[in-house]
């Protein structure tokens, strides 16, 4: 990037579409982490999710000329991801691996100082993971995408190919089911419950 200049996303896309294809690396860097988390939520397999994210980015680079700005670039990219996921399912007849929620703890960081507090957080996060894993798929996917993958409601609608209103309804119902189990949403690292109304 010339002179280490930081471009806005819209300018970056415009320059790539104008022929500066080398800038796509920066665009991919900005979206790769959230794209990988969304892929993981869909397929629940680490290697498969990495392959899906790479394929989506590659396809995004090849067809960026088709991006017309009528939606967020992330929404467009997640739409590609979902298409690749469904295509891979048909090709591989993939069996769903066990939930990553039961194996990994995306909520914890190494920065917690108090060991007693750390233990309580670990116990709370474990209860949360188990509770989310037991939700119906339609609620589990929305909650994982919203809070663990930190996807916007619009992006979730693109990933799952459902209307925005359906995403809001599923998120509301999923959070309500967690409340009924005495699971508090403040256990999430980036709770945005207000998004249900947005």
Automatic annotation (TrEMBL):
GO annotation, biological process: DNA-templated transcription initiation
Database matches in Pfam families: Sigma70_r2, Sigma70_r4
InterPro entries, per database record: RNA_pol_sigma-70-like, RNA_pol_sigma-70_dom, RNA_pol_sigma70_ECF_CS, RNA_pol_sigma70_r2, RNA_pol_sigma70_r4, RNA_pol_sigma_r2, RNA_pol_sigma_r3/r4-like, WH-like_DNA-bd_sf
Protein's UniProt name: RNA polymerase sigma factor
Keyword Transport found: no
Residues of the RNA polymerase sigma-70 region domain: 27-93, 133-180
The organism of origin for this protein: Planctopirus ephydatiae
Family annotation (PROSITE patterns): SIGMA70_ECF
GO molecular function annotation: DNA binding; sigma factor activity
Family under the similarity heading: Belongs to the sigma-70 factor family. ECF subfamily.
PANTHER family: RNA POLYMERASE ECF-TYPE SIGMA FACTO, RNA POLYMERASE SIGMA FACTOR HI_1459-RELATED
Key words of the record: DNA-binding, Sigma factor, Transcription, Transcription regulation
Lineage of the organism: Bacteria, Pseudomonadati, Planctomycetota, Planctomycetia, Planctomycetales
Origin: domain of life: Bacteria
């Amino acid at each position: 990037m010339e002179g280490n200049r930081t471009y806005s996303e819209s300018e970056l896309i415009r320059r790539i579409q104008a022929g500066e294809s080398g800038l796509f690396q920066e665009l991919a860097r900005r979206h790769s982490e959230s794209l990988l988390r969304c892929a993981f939520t869909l397929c629940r397999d680490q290697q498969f999710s990495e392959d899906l994210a790479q394929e989506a980015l590659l396809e995004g680079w090849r067809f960026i000329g088709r991006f017309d700005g009528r939606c967020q670039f992330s929404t467009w990219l997640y739409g590609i991801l979902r298409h690749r996921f469904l295509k891979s399912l048909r090709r591989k007849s993939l069996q769903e691996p066990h939930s990553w929620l039961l194996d990994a703890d995306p909520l914890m960081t190494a920065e917690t100082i108090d060991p007693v507090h750390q233990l309580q957080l670990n116990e709370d996060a474990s209860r949360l993971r188990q509770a989310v894993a037991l939700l119906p798929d339609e609620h589990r996917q929305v909650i994982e995408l919203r809070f663990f993958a930190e996807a916007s409601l619009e992006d979730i609608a693109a990933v799952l190919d459902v209307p925005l209103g359906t995403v809001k309804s599923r998120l509301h119902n999923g959070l309500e089911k967690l409340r009924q189990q005495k699971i508090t949403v403040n256990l999430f690292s980036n709770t945005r419950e207000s998004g249900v109304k947005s």
